[in-house]
Structure to design on (77 residues):
């Protein structure tokens, strides 16, 4: 596995940060669409997918604290 455990954890945290920013943008989009009485179903679906990915990343980060090899090989490449 390439990179140190610390590098892999940093990359994982960066992924989490990126998805959190994406979630914030998506929630803002949903609010804006709702204010204009637009259909928000597709935005809400995307938001759920982002939430699912964030949950998986947070789980991976939590496991990583106990086992540095919990991050799948190639995850950060």
């Amino acid at each position: 596995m390439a990179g140190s455990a610390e590098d892999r954890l940093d990359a994982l945290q960066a992924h989490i940060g990126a998805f959190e920013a994406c979630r914030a943008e998506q929630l803002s989009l949903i609010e804006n669409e709702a204010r204009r009485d637009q259909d928000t179903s597709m935005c809400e679906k995307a938001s759920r997918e982002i939430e699912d990915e964030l949950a998986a990343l947070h789980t991976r980060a939590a496991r990583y604290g106990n086992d540095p090899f919990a991050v799948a090989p190639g995850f950060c490449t």
